[in-house]
Specification:
It is built from 14 helices and 10 strands. The protein is α/β, with parallel strands linked by helices. The chain folds into 2 domains: 226 residues, Rossmann fold; 92 residues, 3-Layer(aba) Sandwich (Rossmann fold). The radius of gyration is 18 Å and the shape is globular. It starts with 7 loop residues before the first helix and ends with a helix.
Length: 333
């Protein structure tokens, strides 16, 4: 990216985990589940005209990569002797499942705030983990602001959506991917609040790899694309109906500082392109991808003319999509 925030180098050095820290984080993650698979899918490779490797983070116990971050976040609290009696956080679903899972494992009460109209099945999954769910606001940012106020009122610990201790865990999936497929030339990663993309950068730097990292945002939620172009946080409206995991109205300044000097470029994908990618992934791999989980494949399809002969890494970041939604998407051939 051309623009660079003045504070980017300092933030990058302080927030991104080292190789040893990622390896330590992996040991924490593997207490709960083992490394997720990555496969070279033949049909997807044909679509791209390239070697298409897909990392299946939809195969974690909560169906998304976020669980890794929740585990290491709570482990860090425990090690510092700061484990609270209760936590509060905000989510569109996968982060909430991550925090709910980790809070339950540590015997910590957990309240999660979601916007009205959130995925009914993600809501149900969080409740099944023992989460107290509150619906507030029309989008994630409104839910986040309410959650912060609620945490302050209760004297509870507010778990953010972007934090160094979350990055330690999330980086493990990119570390796994890059170790398993060292020949990767380029990887595509969706950007919601930024932990996935920043963790890809962390793994790349820790392993000394030269691959290109391409950020993916929704055309209907452009705060990160706009902020990266401007070199500062730029708020943007959210209208995506499918990629709820990328439905962010305000970019995180710390994430932005890491992304600016390290992303190769950003691709915007429409809901229609995401739906097409969901159908393609199901046909090629028989894996269900949620909207944000299919976004990286949608971006690669958009850029397939420049990918010929390369090894391309796709992050299938989650498969938590409501049954009615995925049925409509798959039926719209």
């Amino acid at each position: 990216m051309s623009a660079v925030l003045d504070q980017a180098p300092a933030l990058e050095n302080s927030m991104l985990p080292s190789l040893r820290e990622i390896e330590d984080a992996a040991r924490v993650v593997y207490r709960e589940f083992q490394a997720t698979p990555q496969y070279r899918w033949g049909l997807s490779s044909q679509r791209l005209g390239a070697d298409c490797w897909i990392k299946h983070e939809n195969h974690t116990p909560v169906g998304a990569f976020k669980l890794r971050g929740g585990l290491t976040y709570f482990e860090a609290l425990l090690r510092r002797g700061e484990l609270p009696a209760q936590v509060v956080s905000a989510t569109r679903g996968n982060h909430g499942q991550s925090i709910g899972w980790a809070a339950r494992a540590h015997g910590v009460a957990c309240t999660i705030v979601v916007p009205h109209g959130n995925s009914t099945e993600k809501n149900a999954a969080m409740r099944a983990l023992g989460v107290t769910l509150i619906e507030h606001g029309d989008d994630f940012q409104a839910s986040r602001e309410f959650a912060m106020a609620l945490a302050a009122e209760r004297g509870a610990h507010m778990v953010p959506s972007f934090h160094a201790d979350l990055l330690h865990g999330v980086s493990t999936y990119w570390w796994e991917f890059m170790l398993a497929v060292p020949q990767l030339d380029v990887v595509y990663v969706p950007i919601g609040q930024g932990s996935g993309a920043c963790s890809a950068i962390a793994a790349k730097l820790a392993l000394g790899r030269k691959l290109r990292i391409v950020g993916v945002v929704s055309t209907h939620a452009t705060t990160y694309a706009d902020s990266l172009a401007a070199g500062r946080v730029v708020e943007a409206p959210v209208t995506t109906q499918l990629a709820d995991g990328m439905a962010c109205r305000v970019a995180d300044a710390e994430a932005l500082a890491i992304l600016l000097p390290q992303l190769d470029h950003v691709v915007k994908v429409t809901d229609d392109e995401v739906a097409q990618a969901m159908r393609a992934l199901y046909a090629d791999t028989h894996n269900v991808a949620e909207g944000a989980g299919a976004a990286s494949f949608a971006a690669a399809m958009q850029e397939r003319d420049r990918l010929k002969g390369q090894a391309v890494g796709i992050a299938l970041t989650g498969g938590n999509v409501d049954t009615t939604t995925v049925a409509k998407v798959l039926a719209a051939v």
